[in-house]
Write a structure and sequence with these properties.
Elements lengths: L4 E17 L2 E15 L2 E6 L13 H16 L7 H6 L8 H18 L4 H4 L7 E3 L2 E3 L5 H14 L4 E4 L6 H10 L5 E4 L9 H5 L9 E2 L10 H7 L4 E3 L6 H10 L4 E4 L7 H14 L3 E3 L6 H10 L23 E2 L9 E3 L9 E2 L1 H6 L1 E7 L1
Parallel strand pairs: 5-6, 6-7, 7-8, 8-9, 9-10, 10-11
Antiparallel strand pairs: 1-2, 1-15, 2-3, 4-13, 12-14
Helix pairs in contact: 1-3, 5-6, 9-10
Bound molecules: 2-succinylbenzoate and magnesium ion.
Length: 369
């Protein structure tokens, strides 16, 4: 396969409800879509970084520039045997995994379409045809509002609830949730809001029987999670600090965590995500698929990824309507009353693009060839 053209598009979509984490509130997503064209076929990817460099160092505009100035020139007009090989062309760019991952995922989608098979098959997935879904619920203005949201999602069938925590929105909040919902699968995501000085505060959360606590310490910190994990009964799940299979191997070897969250963009695409998956599986560490408030393309890619066999815990992959008035794919991602998403058999990522809808929210477009 030879990539003849790459089209970058910047789209803007307001969230149905703001999403708040320990690092801030998001009302509107600005996302870069990547289309790769070859032989009359097209593959699509979505860059998952935020609008600000607060989750990690990337943001919408940095992703655009990295793709335009560094990734695209290395990929255009080369002959590749596979998407995995194309991914390797950008490997010596330091960091910017989400920018590179958006293009990498588009090339996998293209490969699947050229082979006329579903993407989940091309990446070696399909071990599970029905993906278990959880939801991630942001920090709310009041505990009452949070309880209401949890109730809605539990009633919709979602299989586990994740709430966001930070110092001051943690113990009392989780206590109230546990009192109202004693038996739900519950976890908390700190998005790096604590330090080792908070070890006693975090140990108090052990009494709530949480499935895990996600990324309590700094975004670039693996090692300090080792003494924290030793002090907690609750498993630690790492998110931000696992950017490669090498990091995953180190975290597992050091016993810094009991669980891993895999985000396609954070590790730079399917090639690396599969490596993380495989080594976690060998080590007996369960994984689940994280989310970055994706639009339909990113959501569909996450569904394909989640079909690999070691994705044994419900992920942050949920219905389009929780985020968007109108998503950019058709049909939109829907969740069964059992709290699952069914894999689709159409070629590529499995959903049709709403091209007119994309055009109507497109702020910028650039064709690279
Ligand atoms: O840490 O998992 C995270 C959203 C934005 C940035 C980071 C995170 C999240 C989520 C939302 O938790 C997951 C989703 O519903 O897409
Ligand atoms: Mg997280």
């Amino acid at each position: 396969m030879k990539i003849e053209q790459i089209v970058l598009r910047l789209i803007e979509m307001p969230l149905v409800h703001f999403f708040e984490t320990s690092f801030g509130r998001t009302y509107v997503r600005r996302m870069v879509l990547v289309e790769v064209r070859s032989d009359g076929a097209a593959g699509w990817g979505e860059v998952t970084c935020g609008e600000n460099p607060f989750y990690n160092e990337e943001w919408t505009e940095s992703a655009w520039m990295i793709l335009r100035d560094f990734v695209a020139p290395r990929v255009l007009s080369h002959e590749f045997a596979s998407a995995a090989e194309a991914a390797g062309r950008g490997a010596h760019i330091r960091g910017h995994n989400m920018a590179r991952g958006g293009l990498e995922a588009a090339v996998w989608d293209l490969e699947a379409r050229l082979k006329n098979e579903p993407l989940w098959k091309t990446i070696g997935g399909g071990a599970q045809k029905e993906i278990a879904c959880g939801v991630s619920i942001g920090i709310q203005d009041s505990i009452g509002q949070l309880l209401e949201k949890i109730e809605t999602e539990v009633n919709a069938g979602y299989r586990r609830i994740k709430i966001k925590i930070k110092p001051g929105w943690d113990f009392d909040v989780i206590a109230a949730v546990r009192k109202r919902f004693p038996s739900i699968l519950l976890m908390a995501d700190a998005n790096s809001a604590y330090t080792l000085a908070d070890i006693d505060r975090l140990r108090r959360l052990d009494e709530f029987n949480l499935m895990m606590i996600e990324q309590p310490l700094a975004h670039d910190e693996i090692i300090d999670h080792v003494p924290l994990q030793a002090a907690l009964k609750t498993p630690i799940c790492l998110d931000e600090c696992i950017r490669s299979a090498h990091h995953a191997e180190q975290a597992i070897r050091l016993k810094a965590c009991g669980i891993l969250n895999i985000k396609l963009g954070r590790v730079g695409g399917f090639t690396e995500a599969r490596k993380v998956h495989d080594l976690a599986q060998k080590a007996g560490i369960p994984v689940w698929c994280g989310g970055m408030l994706e639009a339909g393309i990113g959501r569909a890619h996450n569904i394909a990824l989640s079909s690999l066999p070691n994705f044994t815990l419900p992920g942050d992959v949920s219905a389009s309507r929780r985020y968007w008035k109108r998503d950019i794919i058709q049909p939109e991602v829907e969740v069964t009353p059992r709290g699952t998403i069914l894999l689709r058999d159409e070629p590529g990522f499995g959903y049709a693009l709403d091209q007119g809808g994309i055009q109507s929210i497109c702020l910028r477009e650039e064709i690279l060839s």
